[in-house]
Amino acid sequence: MLLSVIVPCFNEEKTIELILNKIDKTSFKNKEIIVVNDGSSDNTKEILDKIEKKLNCEIKIINHNKNLGKGAAINTAINKISGDIAIIQDADLEYDPNDYDKLINPILNNKADVVYGSRFVGSDAKRVLLFWHKMGNSFLTFLSNMFTNLNLTDMETGYKVFRADIIKKISLKEKRFGIEPEITAKIAKLNIRIYEVGISYYGRDYSQGKKITWKDGFSALRCIVKYNLFS
Length: 231
Hints:
By secondary structure, this protein is of the alpha/beta class. It contains 8 helices and 7 strands, in the order βαβαβαβαβαβααβα. It has a 7-stranded mixed sheet, with helices on both faces. α5 runs parallel beside α8.
């Protein structure tokens, strides 16, 4: 089994080398990393150019000429997947690659086709942060579940793992953070097995570079309705 780790990144000069080293050192040895530098205006590109030769696993680096959004970066990476399993890994340090085993095992054991890593269940360490952000997440997950008839606790999670053949056959349209409800709506319409596991979460606040805003919340509402009812 080959694992493809998709890393969309935008202006993550402080964390990109750290997260790539963490991915490289995970216990899942047979893997490739696909980094999409989404038009960063800081030193992300220069750091990527230097780290490419330092990693033990294969790395593919793709540069967007301008910032298109997380969804667009993921879409670019999907077209480059060589693996049997694909996981989306944010370039910040909010999500811990040490959780890969628990996220991937349901697929390796042929119990799941897609696995979501939930920030809101389980006994793993989670930073206490941003009450209204949590309320927004809960509301969007609740609304999404009403349309999809799933019982997810964290639809907006950045940790989503797929059998590669599934993510490759889904046509994704959203350019920004609307990719999360879009993916959920589209996999819910497939006859597949969806699992959820608790993960650790080391959230950032906006002073530390968190990028999602209230505007993305309204965009998520639009995407929930659009991709569940009209797609």
